[in-house]
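Sequence in, structure out. Go.
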Amino acid sequence: MTIQEAIKARHSVRVYKDQPLTEETINALEGKISEINHASGLHMQLILNEPKAFQGTLAKYGRFRGVNNYIVVAGRKTAELDEIVGYYGEHLVLFAQTLGLNTCWVGLSYKKIANTFVLEEGEKIACYIAIGYGETQGIGHKIKTVEQVSNASNDTPSWFKKGVESALLAPTAINQQKFSFEYIGIKNGRHQVLAKKGFSIFGYTHMDLGIAKYHFEVGAGKENFEWQ
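Output:
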């Protein structure tokens, strides 16, 4: 499965089978996490065979069941942390999909279990990502149109519309899709694209924007443009 295929196949999954990850899969995930942490400065950690974080009232409210494996996504406390988390966390989420795993971004419906993760000085936890073999492959949700979230038209490059279509398949908090993409034009010989977040009373718009930007890059081809 390619990353583009993973974008189309992946849906949020909240209920998981009691099936342990294989050693090969664990090694692949650990390797990818190390690679992403090095590139991003994040401190993602894979937690295995630990069910307590997704038990109790919060997990029931979030409709989670059977979550025994998850990723703690942490990083240094900066204004850019949430967008970085979204952008690089989605790299890992889509990689997991190519391994035959299912995932779900989790902002609130978990408990922090002592001695399961490490935080360096100046770091904080931004979110968790549930991971494992889902009881189902999840379901799609209604999404906005290209016109609602961009200025795509007959005058914009074809790759721009493909990028927006890919971004519309990105997971966002409560499916709010509070982001937009604007084709600016050419500057210094390079096409320019502006990505913007909208307002939401539910929050997580910075993280959602990071996720959507990675989806856009996959669909549009990162080599075709620069971010404004």
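Check: The chain has two domains: 3-132, 146-227. Strands lie at 45-47, 70-76, 102-106, 123-132, 179-187, 190-197, 226-227.
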